[in-house]
Amino acid sequence: MSKKTFMVFFAAWSLALAGYSQVFAQSTMSADVVVVGAGAAGLAAAVTAAEGGAKVIILEKMPAVGGTTNYAEGIFAVESRLQREKNLNYTKDWAFKYMMEYTHWRANARLARAFIDKSPETIDWLEKHGLKFKEPAANYPGGYMTWHIIDGRGKALAQTLYAQAQEKGATVLMRTAGKELIKDGKGRIAALIAEDAAGKKIRINTKTAVIATGGFINNKKMLDKYTAFGPDIVPVGSSGKTGEGIRMAWAAGADAFGTDVLQLYRPGIPGEGPESHLNAPARQPYLWVNQLGDRFCDESIIFSWPYAGNALANQPGRVMYVIFDENTKKYMIEKGIDVGVGVMVPVATKLTKLDGELQRGIDRGFVFVAPSVKELAAKIKVDAARLQATIDEYNSMADSRQDRLFAKDPKYMQPVRKANFYAMKAVPFALGTLGGIKINHKAEVLDKNQEAIPGLYAAGNDAGGLYGDSYDVVLAGSTLGFAVNTGRIAGEN
After folding, report:
1. pLDDT recorded at residue 114
2. pLDDT tens figures, 375-429
3. What is the pLDDT of residue 314?
């Protein structure tokens, strides 16, 4: 190699090395706390840690903050100021006992207690940061009013906490996902490896990481492996929840817990938004049959979403049909629905556009109409004689005002007699998964020896321990409440 060629090569190599060093420098950051996920849990953790003086970096792989929180309507609390103002005497002890009995003591008792005890203070904390609440409400007729409805719903909560995190100096890296946790020789968190949308790796040196990525409801392989529903479940209001945070914690030695618990929602029609009037008839407590043409439950369990989901899980193909006639259609148009669909389609809403909505359902292949039961049975591929026998039995019980089979409240027993006859195909829905990483009451992640991994925390839907085998809507707002409160607990600790 000539001297001139060597000099050119050396100059080029030097420039390349300088460029590499610059990229490497840009790809290394440091923080006291790294929060993976900018939903309710992650943002609550970030704001709380920043309030304590920590330097915080938030990673969010999606292009916007909030995630599923944006679709929430209210948050759980007991002994809140808003409840006291309405003379609602729900105590922390009562809520704790109810929660533990509901879960048959499969829930982590100290974690449940920590969440419940912090809940009223969290309402005050959110109000201090500018969030406004409408009122405490129940999720079903006669229910407990633990659901603190947010003015602007969950999106307002997410935006409020996001603004507070930025105001307190947190760095937010959008379209950037957490990928790997690095521990030092003593087993303590030392760094986190992230990856941006361009595929560039970023090393963030830190002593504390909070995993709050929202679960794995959008990961069909994980659903198939860890849940009873498998990939058949239809996610509601979720995208990008593919379990990276959970897998990252497991790889760092975290124990697994609660991976089989789903936040089951009402069965319904896929692709319909929460304000859909097409979904409303599919979520009424009228006559439900499975693909065999048999009735399989007390249909009023639709008020408690996970019960309805659990009942549907046992049916062939996990498909059901809501059967009603022309009289019931008229009832929904003129009198209104018996079961509200959240605060967007409340109870007693008159479905004045139902005929058009049903036609849209027919076009989509989820609504079937026929002038006779025999023809309806043919359309939904059910044995006609079996369906007719089911309807005859149901009509007899409706006439006598007594459900001799499943003891349903007779006020929800609408006979099926007058043509036309309708069938709406409904499938299982879920708002999310409710576990994966085992934590203690301090939101510390536990290893397989049940010891805390130093510097590692988890919150919200990534963390298991609040539920037994089924989501609970009796203590309404508990999932959003668990997210915000465990986020705060992680941020404080």
Report:
1. 98
2. 999 999 999 999 999 999 999 999 999 999 999 999 999 999 999 999 999 999 9
3. 87
| Model confidence, pTM | 0.89
- Distance (Å, rounded) from C-alpha 340 to C-alpha 336? 10
* pLDDT of amino acid 275: 73
Neighbours of 328 (CB within 10 A): 22
How far is residue 360's CA from residue 320's CA, in Å, rounded to a whole number? 19
Give the integer Cα–Cα distance in Å for 69 and 214. Answer: 10
Please report the pLDDT score of residue 471 as a whole number.
Answer: 92
Name 174's Cβ contacts closer than 8 Å, sequence gap at least 6: 60, 62, 63, 64, 65
Instruction: Using the Cα atoms of residue 225, residue 226, residue 231 and residue 235 in order, give the sign of their dihedral.
Output: negative
- The structure tokens 């090393």 sit at 203
Largest Cα separation within the chain, whole Å, is 105
How many Cβ atoms sit within 10 Å of the Cβ of residue 390?
Answer: 23
Strand partners, 156: none
Token pair of 173, please?
Answer: 């890296």
Burial of 288 (0-12, 13-18, 19+ CB in 10 A): buried
Q: What is the pLDDT of residues 43-102, one digit of tens each?
A: 999 999 999 999 999 999 999 999 999 999 999 999 999 999 999 999 999 999 999 999
Distances 69 to 44, 154, 374, 467 between C-alpha atoms, Å:
12, 5, 45, 19
In angstroms, the CA 37 to CA 51 distance is: 18
Phi and psi at residue 406, to the nearest 5°: -120, 5
% of the chain exceeding 90 in pLDDT = 86
